[in-house]
């Protein structure tokens, strides 16, 4: 950090990690009641679409989603500390110089990366869970009201258990109703569709709860991803133009990959959920074209009106929608500011 530009970039790099970690902890403390409401709604949704959810498989995926990122960031932090200790040792002029003390003071800062990674995992796991539930809801709608449409899902290859359900039962599960979809009359199918509409409404409210719960944290995480990608690319180019330390260069490349994956861990689950929720509109439109029962047609109309009101999408404190469109804006911004920083670096010598 011999130039003013390098010092400013490093200060931003450190500050944004601290700010993102504090925001994650703050959202966790303040959003306790929101979390309870979210868990209550998700339990009710799972009771509705439980027959279309592999719990064991979901737990395995959640474990993988936890272990792989934590193991990766631990290895990366170890490599980073080792590289800086090596650089500090090479800068010693006298034997009693303690150049490595600066690196040791950074270790508490490095531990904040673990907090930041846990925040990413928590958000990604929550969002992927909502996406799976939207997917299960759409699958249930297809199998119940569009029997001519083949659903290519591994769970649907098994023969469903058929349970006798009375039309006037108010506590019948949707999976039982769906298994008799070919034998139901219009009234029973309308009850099933009403249940699906209530489930969709509950999922839409869950998306709003998650968006409000993680809103500030998502905004700061997006800013941190932007600044980290910018700073890491800047230091990589500076190293390539000057010392060309191969170990340091490869370390910066790995950091760029890690920060890019952090960004995708936020954007991709939100994008998939948005796409899957949009599929519900297409399914309802297709159901509307195929039905001929007046009672069922009325419920389809109500469901359609509900879809116009509830549009499940994630936003970062209402400032921007979190989907793949944000990637192009961020990477173009990184390229622009990277050119500006390089110009400042050349000006400062």
UniProtKB/TrEMBL annotation:
Organism taxonomic ancestry: Eukaryota, Metazoa, Ecdysozoa, Arthropoda, Hexapoda
Shown part of the complete sequence: 71 to 419 of 419
Origin superkingdom: Eukaryota
Reported function: Gustatory receptor which mediates acceptance or avoidance behavior, depending on its substrates.
Residue spans crossing the bilayer: 8-34, 62-85, 105-131, 213-237, 249-267, 326-344
Gene name tied to this protein: LOC101888578
Organism field: Musca domestica
Keywords carried by this UniProt record: Cell membrane, Membrane, Receptor, Transducer, Transmembrane, Transmembrane helix
Localisation: Cell membrane
Name of the protein this chain belongs to: Gustatory receptor
Family: Belongs to the insect chemoreceptor superfamily. Gustatory receptor (GR) family.
GO biological process, one term: chemosensory behavior
Primary location class: membrane
Nucleotide-binding in keyword set: no
Membrane topology term: Multi-pass membrane protein
The keyword Zinc belongs to this UniProt entry's keyword annotation: no
């Amino acid at each position: 950090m011999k130039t003013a530009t390098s010092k400013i970039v490093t200060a931003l790099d450190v500050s944004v990690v601290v700010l993102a970690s504090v925001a994650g902890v703050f959202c966790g403390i303040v959003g306790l009641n929101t979390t309870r409401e979210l868990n209550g709604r998700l339990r009710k949704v799972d009771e509705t679409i439980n027959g279309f959810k592999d719990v064991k498989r979901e737990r395995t995926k959640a474990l993988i989603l936890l272990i792989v990122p934590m193991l990766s960031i631990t290895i990366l932090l170890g490599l980073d500390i080792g590289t800086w200790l090596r650089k500090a040792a090479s800068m010693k002029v006298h034997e009693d110089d303690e150049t490595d003390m600066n690196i040791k003071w950074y270790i508490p800062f490095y531990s904040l990366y673990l907090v930041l990674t846990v925040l990413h995992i928590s958000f990604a796991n929550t969002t992927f869970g909502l996406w799976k539930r939207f997917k299960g809801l759409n699958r249930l709608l297809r199998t119940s009201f569009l029997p001519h449409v083949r659903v290519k899902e591994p769970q649907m290859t098994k023969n469903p258990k058929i349970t006798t359900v009375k039309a006037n039962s108010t506590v019948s599960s949707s999976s039982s109703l769906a298994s008799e979809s070919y034998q139901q009359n219009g009234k029973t199918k309308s009850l099933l569709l009403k249940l699906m509409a209530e489930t969709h409404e509950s999922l839409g409210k869950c998306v709003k709860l998650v968006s409000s719960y993680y809103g500030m944290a998502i905004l700061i995480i997006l800013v941190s991803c932007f600044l980290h990608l910018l700073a890491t690319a800047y230091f990589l180019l500076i190293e390539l133009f000057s010392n060309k330390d191969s170990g340091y260069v490869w370390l910066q490349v790995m950091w760029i990959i890690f920060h890019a994956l952090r960004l995708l861990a936020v954007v991709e689950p939100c994008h998939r959920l948005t796409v899957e929720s949009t599929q519900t509109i297409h399914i309802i439109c297709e159901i509307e074209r195929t039905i001929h029962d007046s009672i069922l047609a009325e419920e389809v109309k109500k469901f359609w009106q509900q879809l116009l009101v509830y549009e499940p999408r994630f936003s970062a404190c209402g400032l921007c929608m979190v989907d793949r469109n944000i990637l192009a804006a961020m990477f173009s911004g990184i390229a622009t500011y990277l050119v500006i920083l390089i110009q400042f670096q050349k000006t400062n010598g």
